[in-house]
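User: Quick one: structure for sequence A, then sequence B.

Assistant: Sequence A:
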Amino acid sequence: MSVPAIATFNTGSSSLKFSLYRAGDDGLAERLLGGTLTGLGKTLKVVTEPHDQTLQRQLSAALSQVDPVPECLIPELARCLSAAVEGAELVAAGHRIVHGGQTCDGPRLATPQLLDTLDDLSIFALDHQPYNLAGVRSMAKQFPGLPQSLSFDTAFHRTQPREARLYALPRALTASGLQRYGFHGLSYAYISDNLVETFSDLPHRKTIVAHLGNGASLCAMQDGTSIATSMGLTALSGVPMATRCGDLDPGAVLYLIGSQKMTPGEVSDMLHHQSGLLGVSGISSDIRDLLASPAPEAEEALDVYTYRIAREIGSLTAALHGLDAIVFTGGVGENSQEIRRRICARLSWMGTDLDVTLNESGPGIISAQHSKIAVAVVPTNEEEVIAREAFSLVRDAA
């Protein structure tokens, strides 16, 4: 019996998340399998979800026969996923694309012309966009005729008012596309769709979502719609991240290039890969390492990180004209009770009182009953959003 299936690919510079979903007549059904590849361009490591040692060995053996880069791995991975589920037949592939620019305010079916247009945006997302697009093109070569959908991280934020998107730059530059876009939109879309279920009868019209992982950003949602976010033109801006600096005085960049004689490439590498938690601590980019370290530099990095996140929540509260709820998501937001505690402690003046036991157990509501602001942990699922958008596009095109 044939099982129509949609494969999803979330491709970065060093890792690739994948899933296979069953597509039913009435909509997207359950995830059949999924996992993550790490070590792209180096030594691959495969982890499946749910954990399946047999499947992991099969995938590792098959993928070891091709170059460990997205354009080679993704078509082979698609074949492996189809073979792993009896009767599975690919009807579409869905891809995460980080930057959609001014025109992509929702998912799009991939075309050569659209991919060429998206190439021009790669300069704004060098650690993501080229790898995203390489995967789409490789699938088009190996699976000609298979519909492919593109789901954009920037699309969720296209609802923001113009005043939230503009930089104070000459209008001609704004018209050319130099404006705030925001990222992690697929994660925010998933959280938005689950706000009612998450908070039930608790107020949540004005919600701030903190997506904290290797990359980190925050989004202010009014009735589930993005009205402001911490990131801007690129995923380098906003709060400090694992190795990215976050917001920085542009004069500092001019100083590095002018007085320090650094090349633009050297500055870019430093701001993307040598800054953030790693730069401040000089120890590690991993929150777990810093929390375990007795070094004062580690504590200072954590102080900078939690201070800036708390301050950003204050800024986004102003954009919302108030605050009902906070959601933590992403690898750090979902798994680090200590980071959640430190951030909420900095916001205690707002009434973010955590229940110690609930914060330790999560996910779900972690705030105390008397807390003025409801606080929750919600595991995100970008792959489900990609699959759902792919199903919708393919169904509408049929």
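Sequence B:
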Amino acid sequence: MAASGSKLAIYGAISANLAIAIAKFTASFITGSSAMLSEGIHSAVDSTNGLLLLYGIKRSKQPADKNHPFGYGKEVYFWSFVVALLIFALGGGVAIYEGIKHILHPEAIDNVKINYIVLSLAILFEGASLIVALREFTGSVSLNGILGKIRLSKDAAGFAVIIEDLGAITGLIVALLGVFVGDYFGFIYADGIASVCIGIILTGMAAILAKETKGLLLGESLNEFEIDQIEGILKKHPGIIEHGIIKSIHFGPESVLVGIDIEFNNKYTTDELEAEIVNIESEIRSILPHVDKVYLETRDL
């Protein structure tokens, strides 16, 4: 997904989360619900996270300079990792703390209908945000195989929004169940337990996001299919006797460096060899547009 697509999904998520956070905090103040307070904190953190992702995308577009000759593409990976830490610490941590506090000192929820209304509307808003994010990320609104697509994707900002939205919707459903159990069965511990469950869900989502962005920060290569495509190009050139390992590294969702050691047939003149190298580089870029840096080294293998 292009950065513009990521931005659209992020803008949608920020708008939804700001509106939901205000509603949740208001409902929490009126009803005294810890699960609602946890959800309010979660939405506020998600709004901040959206701003950080936008900042990361902006920073990643800076042109290369002498200090960063391969550009700033990894900025978006760094800020996505920061988002994972914030979800873990502020979202999950605070939710678990509030839940434990209310389990130890349980209180009945007042004006419970407000919680039902706010949580139901929040699920609708988060669902709309998730639909936008999925369309921009995969081209459809299906969750089928989404984890595999996230693992293959190098668009950290795009899948961060999806992970956040999935965590938010799951947390909202848990909060709604907690309110219902407390209201219908009179179980005063339900609200605190729901808050702890929300915290566990958020820390789990944060762990998934941190794992995926960590790999990108360390420098992931092209996937096997893309490597095979480059192999196919090299095989079409009879002048190549042998080539080394195809080395690649992502510097951003749309910036990849590929380096290959190649042994050419000695029948080439210098001009012919240079033309052959240019042709190979052009062919690689034509089938893999995100490969913007190709280095072919001629040597005896």
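The chain has a mean pLDDT of 86. The CA atoms of residues 230 and 284 lie 6 Å apart.

User: Thanks, that's what I needed.
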